[in-house]
């Protein structure tokens, strides 16, 4: 079965999220096939995080539907939590616990978890097993978060702003970890062009809560007659990806 | 498209091992951040010793085997241990978890954020038992204090006191937007109810109006109920109403206002 013929792992249709006066997400539809690594690219405030939070079942859509491997993240919450691994953009862990203790804690939440040794080795934190979360560097915290997102052997993984704030070396290490996820369906939310271009087979460009364009990085560059994905983004959205706007 | 995968499977929920791990995690957080133990364990001890030193005729018996000190100081100290943990510490932990989005992180796992709340309560109850044990040890060794004449009634009052103080603590956790404001609101609430309930001296010394107000608040009701248990008497109905009502009110307010994020 090729990726083009693989069944849909994520099927989000016409998602809308309104907050009083503001519409954060305005009719986004995304379909991601099993085994695919799919990027969601947009400036800050474009609606990326709100979209994936609706997909993950953290925010109820004002309109629209989400299915993860055929399951509704709100009505089938318990089942979805077993098959979904999520790394949130900003989320802290029990700061006084060591990496090993955190991994063991999160392992206990799943029926068939990875063993703790494997989880830490996967993100190259074996030597930091006894180090408390509060004493880790930003990159190490991020890698531990990824390990915890993968600890339950999820079939679908959502990674939000995976490498924000990491130095180039740490970013490459995290990318290698993501590239090793060949069995899972991955949604990668980012505003880093190089990251998306390297890791994702298909990308949705999001602006002002809408999908502006969708396709492989090559297809998007062709569509915009651009040399780089960043140029394509500017051409298709009229915005610089580095523009600092309000948060999602 | 119609080719959506469908992998219906039985729902799985975290079992006893997960509960145990979470309780262990919360306990480690409390132990490793030991500064948080100073108030619930140290402050009641300080008040106990001060009352032990300052109460005149502390050894005088007001009932068979019940000294003035046991009757006035120990009910206040037990209520203090419970109140500091439930009204100051517990809301502060929850506010910190909310601010740092730890509860949100748990919400994307099969564990529910409500599990953290239960684990917190278990760990808090262990602290209550330790705090009371410590206070009793000091009281028995240094001030010849006596245990309550009606220990089962005292145990029942302790449970009601815990429920009432947790109710108040959940109101604090529900309305406090930040960890700092949680501590501030918790301290004000604690000193308010404790001052009117006899923490700074027997409530009998307060003006009548304040005595009445105090007895309708959970701290004062708890102290009065423990005093009844010490004398081996039945607890007044009003005390049960206040303690039960505080627990119910707290649960209601938390149900309406508490935010996980």
TrEMBL record, chain A:
Residues 10-233 form the ABC transporter domain. This is ABC transporter ATP-binding protein. It is found in: Cell membrane. Its main location: membrane. One of its GO terms (biological process) is response to antibiotic. GO terms for cellular component: plasma membrane. It is a peripheral membrane protein.
From TrEMBL, chain B:
Keywords: Antibiotic resistance, Cell membrane, Membrane, Transmembrane, Transmembrane helix, Transport. The keyword NAD does not apply. This is Transport permease protein. It is found in: Cell membrane; Membrane. InterPro entries: ABC2_TM, ABC2_TM_bact-type, ABC_2_transport, Nod_factor_ABC_transporter. The chain crosses the membrane at residues 34-53, 73-95, 116-143, 149-176, 183-201, 240-258. Belongs to the ABC-2 integral membrane protein family. GO terms for biological process: response to antibiotic. One of its GO terms (cellular component) is ATP-binding cassette (ABC) transporter complex. It is a multi-pass membrane protein. Its main location: membrane. Residues 35-261 form the ABC transmembrane type-2 domain. GO terms for molecular function: ABC-type transporter activity.
